[in-house]
Amino acid sequence: MKKVLFLLTCLLIAGSLCFASGQAPAKAGQPASASNPVTLKWVGFGFEANNTAKNLIDRYKARSPYVTIDYQELGALADTDGMARLDTLVAGGQQIDICYLNTSDLMNRAINGAALPLDSAIAANQDDFVKDYGQLGAQATAYNGSIYGVPRAGNTFKVFYNKTMADKYGITVPDQMTQAEFLDVTKKFQSVPGLKWPACLQALWVQITYGAASVAGWKQVTKDSSGKVTVNFDDQRFRDCIKFYHDYAQVEKLAPTVAVYAAESLNRRASLARQECGLILDGPFTLIYLQGFMFNDPGAGKLPFELGVSELPVLTQADKTKSSYNELAGAFYAPSTCKNVLEAYRFMRFVCNENFDINGVYMPIFSGSDLTTAVGTFTNFTDKNGVKQTNIYPVATAIKAVTVPNDSFLGVFPLDPSLNKYIPPLDALLEEQLPVYLNDEMPLDNFIRELTRRGQDIVNNLN
Questions:
Q1: Helix (H) or strand (E) holding 193
Q2: Measured in whole angstroms, how far is the alpha carbon of residue 128 from the centre of its chain?
Q3: Which pTM value belongs to this model?
Q4: What does DSSP say about strands 142-143 and 99-102: parallel, antiparallel, or unpaired?
């Protein structure tokens, strides 16, 4: 929680300084030309790996010779220290034209004035933003009626399981399950000899914990006709979700408790790879993690089993076709010190809409994406010795891991863009408080009341 509070403090400082500098509303800027060369400053996290930033810049230079892009790495990960460095640069007025952050971190900066709206650049480029990025992209990057980010990639959640083990012991894992059906499937793994746990679930990844409620239409906050905003933690769908994960570990003993995870520093993906558990709930990055485990960890080697993939379990049978959990993992944006929003926006689109062979480890949001090229990131891997490993997973497995059968819940159950600002701090609150319930320190009703009280305080303070 200290890290969360530190980050929020940095955001408030950065936002207040940006407003204090008296910046005018963002304008698109002049296009680059021979008589008007443009230099853009791109700062980021992890883009030096595999020469990603250099390759993207070189490709863009061949297309736009009058645009020079300088890249500065702020760290391998966008952690608390890296965010502080970013916010300090912006608050100090240093030119930064392009940056990539996860959705909640971007939205915090939009709220606090540390990001510029892209509407003028979108209009100048004559783009149909919703057509390009869908309701998911438009919903997740909007604040106060403006678009603040170019969506780079989506993220979903799946059940990854040892299919070879399941087949051997006659366990059928359906492509889609309710949480009750998922519970029954997991219980069947109890009969498999040698497993430490039937499953390893990351219940503190709060989006996984309430994902089934989101698919059913639940939102963290609601707004009535008078404009009053109320937290929605007492909704039965949310209650059912967190109770399921509590009972899964504490009552059914099918997975380590949150306390055991912390005490033993368990890694769910490694547990699956070592065949210590039969299944996990996780995101598509699981495929990337397992690549490193197989080919970079000493003595690991290729997985001795076939990997199976199933959808995130839902609450009811009807929810299987309502929507799917597919959210925006992150987006590029223009910090408030951006000097040319138009050219920055054009480069962001270039990165997000093309270059699928080097554009990261999630699936692109862009509607015209080349899916076959994009999944190559998952099926091929160059290890630390420079050896290229190919066909690590079947293409069908990779596609199934990163795509969903229904429209995103954000498109089916859109959130009023004015409510976007409440989601990051409420998720931070839930991440902080959820262990209290999952570790049996407080009964569900008391936990919901306390969570609602604290959540409403956050909402009221933001208002």
A1: none
A2: 24
A3: 0.81
A4: unpaired
